[in-house]
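DM between two lab members

TW: hey, do you still have the Mitochondrial S-adenosylmethionine carrier protein entry open?
JB: yeah, one sec
JB: this one, 135 aa:
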Amino acid sequence: VKHMLAASVGEVIPFSLVQFPLWESLKALWSWRQDHVVDSWQSAVCGAFAGGFAAVVTTPLDVAKTRIMLAKAGSVTASGNVLSALHGVWQTQGLAGLFAGVFPRMAAISLGGFIFLGGYDQTRSLLLRLGRESP
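TW: and the structure you got?
JB:
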């Protein structure tokens, strides 16, 4: 169980380190180009792109996590070593194996980024407006 947790955290942290700064950078660029703060729907579009990109670049980590989680108890892969799992996939399946499932993962996470980050931005805007209106 601790190996599965470590593999999951080892995927989520790099994903977040790519997604959130990219989302903020895309919003800042769009805001600069139109000379005003992005609307919530624009933030959602930025979230979709950021999530999709993060999904693509972290797919090998997701593949390794999945291999570790499904590994037979006592096997080398079950030890939870992400680099070892990645190396095993590379040796047996090459680059295609490291990016197995990349398109469905990218599509699902892009949709999630659109909904979650757009919803977050909409809620944040609403709360800021309410805070300014209260006495």
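TW: got it. The radius of gyration is 19 Å. Residues 2-133 form one domain.
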